[in-house]
DNA sequence: CCTATAACTGAACTACGTTCAACTGAGGGT
DNA sequence: ACCCTCAGTTGAACGTAGTTCAGTTATAGG
């Protein structure tokens, strides 16, 4: 029987990712423990390190899946959105807010994982981020046909960052009690105002 | 001699805060270790726990100081700013950016410290945050005299969150290589556009 | 069936924050 | 000047993490 080892290896890997995903989603990144993970997966702690370099690797794998789901949600919102490019931006941003709210712990894990200093962001991160940026810059190109691509890039990043900041601080417990509707209102306010042609 | 104990206690407290402040500023929150701290302060590890409940308490004390310096920098920028309320907002936001860039690790520690779930944010945090929000809402009241205070509050929060998001993602290593000038450009772009009266 | 090789095991190691029984010394009573 | 008391101080020890690796087990190929 060929590949029996590789099969089990792959199965264990899948299993570990699923368990870690559920643990993070339910109890946050801080609740992820190697021993609990091994116990739930029915394997020894050492087995985790045959499949992943360390726990951060595992978390990054979970994050890749989370980021992908996020991208898919935003894309879906865009597909259902009206033709008006400004409304497309609003709908996407609110989909981002929705995803963050409904997957709060998983979403936070995207940013809370500690990256080794000096290490580049993983490829999947840059790719998925690029995809999100494209979703934003396409409507922007329609709204501002006279600006060049460099201006589009800057505006795209500014816009994404602004929405991210609004959602981040809005969902934060420290600034407790920003109602979900207010977050959506701020998003719409910022986007409509930012995309209103001046003069 | 009265109060000799209290004196040493206060001196130790001051000393620990200064050492922790320097450690965080130089090497980040993650580099703060109880044993190193005690070793540098010339006391036993247990002594730390006579002065602070735990290391998080110490970090919160450092954060209070950091936040206060941040508020002072923004206030100073406001004092030197032109009369135009829009320019005041731009100048303050760029002062925020400047502070975050020049005190990157200390600034990150403001948000990276893990708050016990369900625990309210400390008073000094809410007070300092309120002060920052006042700096923002005052010019806004001049720019939008016809809107009510609830709208001002929403706009203030939206504005702060947007600037925070731009600085946060701009300084992040993952999205490596956003030049400082571009961050300032995005800030100015967002603020000028957000404060341009519609119609 | 046997053997070389790969995977798996879990006790042990390191590195944390935190605690607490034992110790020290300052301040007041005699 | 002397002790007595107790708050302050100490650092070894504890609990809990992530990670490692020598010993064990199972697989694939000859």
Indicate the topology:
The structure is a homodimer of 199-residue chains.
Chain A: H1 4-27, H2 34-41, H3 45-51, H4 55-80, H5 85-102, H6 104-112, H7 123-143, H8 149-171, H9 180-194
Chain A binds a DNA duplex (30 and 30 nucleotides) through α1, α2 and α3.
Core attributes:
homodimer, 199 residues, mainly alpha, 9 helices, 76% helix, elongated, DNA-binding
Descriptive report:
2 copies of one chain form a homodimer. Chain A has 199 residues and is mainly alpha-helical. Chain A has 9 helices and no strands. The longest helix of chain A is centred in the middle third of the chain and has 26 residues, at 55-80. The termini of chain A are far apart. The model of chain A has no long low-confidence stretch (mean pLDDT 92). The A-B interface holds A 30, 114-115, 117, 120-121, 125, 129, 154-155, 157-158, 160-166, 168-170, 173-176, 178, 182, 185-186, 189-190, 193-194, 196, 198 and B 30, 114-115, 117, 120-121, 125, 129, 154-155, 157-158, 160-166, 168-170, 173-176, 178, 182, 185-186, 189-190, 193-194, 196, 198. Chain A binds a DNA duplex (30 and 30 nucleotides) through residues 1-2, 4-5, 8-9, 33-35, 38, 43-50, 54-55.
């Amino acid at each position: 029987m060929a590949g029996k080892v590789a099969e089990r290896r792959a199965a264990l890997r899948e299993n570990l990712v699923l368990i870690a995903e559920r643990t993070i989603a339910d109890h946050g990144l801080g609740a992820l423990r190697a021993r609990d993970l091994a116990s739930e997966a029915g394997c020894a702690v050492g087995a985790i390190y045959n499949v992943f370099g360390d726990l951060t690797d595992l978390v990054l794998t979970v994050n890749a899946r989370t980021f992908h789901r996020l991208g898919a949600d935003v894309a879906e919102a865009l597909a259902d959105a009206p033709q008006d490019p400004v409304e497309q931006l609003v709908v996407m941003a609110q989909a981002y807010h929705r995803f963050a709210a409904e997957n709060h712990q998983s979403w936070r894990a995207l940013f809370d994982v500690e990256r080794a200093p000096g290490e580049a962001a993983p490829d999947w991160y840059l790719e998925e981020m690029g995809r999100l940026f494209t979703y934003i810059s396409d409507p922007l190109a329609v709204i501002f046909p006279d600006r060049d691509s460099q201006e589009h890039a800057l505006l795209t990043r500014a816009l994404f960052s602004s929405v991210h900041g609004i959602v981040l601080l809005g969902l934060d417990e420290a600034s407790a009690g920003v109602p979900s509707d207010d977050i959506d209102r701020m998003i719409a306010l910022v986007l409509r105002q930012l995309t209103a042609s001046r003069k």
